[in-house]
Amino acid sequence: MKPKMNMREWKETVIHTPYKKGAPVLSFPVVQLMDITVQQLISSSDLQAEGMKKVADRCPSLASLSMMDLTVEAECFGAEVRFADNEIPATIGAVVRSVDDANALAVPPVGAGRTQTYIDAARKASELITDRPVFAGIIGPFTLAGRLIGITQIMKAVKKNPEMVHITLRKATEFIIAYAKAYKEQTGVNGFVMAEPMTGLISPKMAEVFSEPYSKEVIDAVQDEEFIVIYHNCGNEVVSQAESIFRLGAEGYHFGNVVNMLDILPKMPADSLVMGNIDPSGYFYSKGPEDMRGAVRELLEQCAYYPNFVISSGCDIAPVAKWENIDAFYEEIAAFYEAHKISGGRLKAPLI
């Protein structure tokens, strides 16, 4: 494995560097460059590592991120997964429907299902990509519980059947911690992005009970100087959950495009990276390169004066995203910061 990096020092360097690189959640569009299907990609550690290297060679990202496949952990628990050639996998149905089901739910060993494929891919990618940090992707406890109970069902169950939810969360957290430790101990990656999109759908009070303690347990179990966690939440309730999110103590936070970054940035720790949030569907896929340039420029003009802000996509970028738009994303970031360098201008708050 490659030598360890002090990731807290890396984070501080990023914060104190006035002209930053972008860090989109970019992995699945590599299927276009490799002329393979999504199912081929997620089934092979070699293809995943090769794909991450191709993205790293083409894109001047702040860090490299492995596949953000939120079905991997649920599949280990027995969830049914729907696969398609050009779409990110999705879970179907529910595994847990009652307290009895939750009690009977077995915590799978790390390596079950496709988890070993993803661990092997992260190890191989970290050996290939040595010029920037490499992050794994992992699901958060509440989102995993939601995939086991059902997305609609868990929203009702937090009120009507909290015991079932907590039992499922306890087992989900146990597995995620073991999985996270495997990444930390076996792969050489520098941390992971923990995706908790379903937390953003519940109220702040519910998040404090059903998400915060479990997510914090995962973070506290693995985060240290050489291995950091970036917490992702792309739900509508992010701003109202800010205090709870702050208390997680992650070294980085990543937010979706439904959030106004100017609403959440002041509420996050100044010594943590705060990342977001160009619409992955609207600008990376539906619109054109000039639209992308305008969106990037506007977001940087609004937020770049925050030293801890790093521009990113709002969520995972779909396999069918347009590479000309992805290229435009990076080109406009470089152009924005280069213009400030040439003019000697300081990044400062806009007059709003």
Summarize this structure as a short list of keywords or feature phrases:
single chain; 49% helix; alpha/beta; globular
Plain-language structure description:
- This protein has 352 residues and is of the alpha/beta class.
- Helices cover 49% and strands 13% of the residues.
- It has 17 helices and 9 strands.
- The strands form 2 sheets. A 7-stranded parallel β-sheet has the order 1-4-5-6-7-8-9. It has a two-stranded antiparallel ribbon with strand order 2-3.
- Helix 8 packs across helix 10 and helix 10 (162-186) runs parallel beside helix 12.
- The N and C termini lie far apart (49 Å).
- 50% of the residues are buried.
- The helix content, as a percent range, equals 40-55%
Q: Give the overall pLDDT as a whole number.
A: 94
Roughly how many Å is the radius of gyration? Answer: 19 Å
- Overall 3D shape: globular
Quaternary state of the chains? single chain
Placed side by side, the strands forming the largest sheet appear as 1-4-5-6-7-8-9
Tally of separate helices: 17
Q: How much of the residues is beta strand, in percent?
A: 5-15%
Straight-line N-to-C gap: 49 Å
Quantity of strands, as a count: 9
Q: Report the order of strands and helices.
A: HHHHEHEEHHEHHHEHHEHEHEHHEH
Characterize the largest beta sheet: strand count, sense, and whether it forms a barrel: 7 strands, parallel
State the low-pLDDT regions, or none: none
Q: Would you tell me the structural class of the helices and strands?
A: alpha/beta
